[in-house]
């Protein structure tokens, strides 16, 4: 059986994963973001788009989660569709898919089909509920996954419903990041042993794992299992957010005594500093802090705390963040193709990363991928005869 070839360096590629080939079966949410992380790190990511696109309505030219990738379009309903994907998998190090459990198998591109062609392949599976369990076949989204893990229940004021934290906590933190960690660990194992494997990355698993420290605090009696009653969930008056005179906000994280003392001094109420350790006075302290913040604008308070160790910062909008002096100095955000976007992270001293290309437009990379990956010509017969299974909507 054929094994993945060691590719030559793709012109213009950068990053520690240069030379790693990744196939991404197009989906939405955490799968594309995970593939973007690998692409940012230098991997040659080929996104297999379906005819007609993912159906989310976002202009592909502005979907930065598809930056640093190339795209081919494959119709998995067509007789030769599965074989075309298997041709890619044969030459890849990693494959990522985000279908519901069993869909890839019915399409003829599941782990067994891919490993038959490439035993070294790392097969990454991204789902919300996981590959097995009572909810495995159910539809879902970020907010439902984090709700069941207890993570959502920790967020927000005690007298209001928990707020939706965009899709950052579940999809990307509990999902994409854990998939990437799993894929890289499995890739290390594959290179050492010659054997690939399946990585089952479930958002419920990753999000639950993120709360490990909180579970330890709960067991030790240092965390109450309710919102707004703990050190890190807004219950503490010196760890939270406050409204300013212009209806904007400041974020306070003055936990340590020395930082708290500096915070109280600059805020102008040093006489209440001893209330830090007296939880019975926390309501009084919170009211005093809130009143002080409402006396000036966000920018005025930003100037007050500038250059201090009071651990207090302005709450910026998405549009404001790239212009903050610190983030600008570090080039935390970058402009590419007219789109302001977060730069690749983390940073590497020997193998720096970069936004090399803009979002991959569906099918635009077909010619270069066929050349660079030495794919069979379209007129060549498929390498495998596969059935044409009924398509199941993975979302």
Order of helices and strands: EHEEHEHHEHHEHHEEHHHEHEEH
The end-to-end span amounts to 33 Å
- SS class: alpha/beta
Strand order of the largest sheet: 3-2-1-4-5-6
Low-confidence stretches: 1-13, 379-395
Total number of helices: 13
Strand proportion: 5-15%
Mean pLDDT: 92
Number of beta-strand segments: 11
Which bin fits the share of residues in helices?
Answer: 25-40%
Radius of gyration: 25 Å
Q: Largest sheet, if any?
A: 6 strands, parallel
Shape, principal axes of CA atoms: elongated
Brief synopsis:
With 395 residues, this protein is α/β, with parallel strands linked by helices.
Could you explain how this protein is built, in words?
The chain has helices spanning 30-40, 81-91, 103-107, 111-117, 142-149, 168-193, 203-210, 212-219, 257-267, 282-293, 298-305, 325-330, 366-372, and strands at residues 21-25, 44-49, 69-73, 94-97, 122-127, 197-202, 239-243, 249-253, 312-314, 333-336, 339-342. The chain has 13 helices and 11 strands. Strand 1 (21-25), helix 1 and strand 2 form a beta-alpha-beta unit. It is elongated, with a radius of gyration of 25 Å. Helix 1 (30-40) crosses helix 6, helix 2 (81-91) packs across helix 4 (111-117) and helix 5 packs across helix 7. Mean pLDDT is 92; it is low at 1-13 and 379-395. The chain is α/β, with parallel strands linked by helices and 395 residues long. The strands form 3 sheets. Strands 3-2-1-4-5-6 form a 6-stranded parallel β-sheet, with helices on both faces. The chain has a 3-stranded antiparallel β-sheet with strand order 7-8-9, covered by helices on one side. The protein starts with 20 loop residues before the first strand and ends in a 23-residue tail after the last helix.
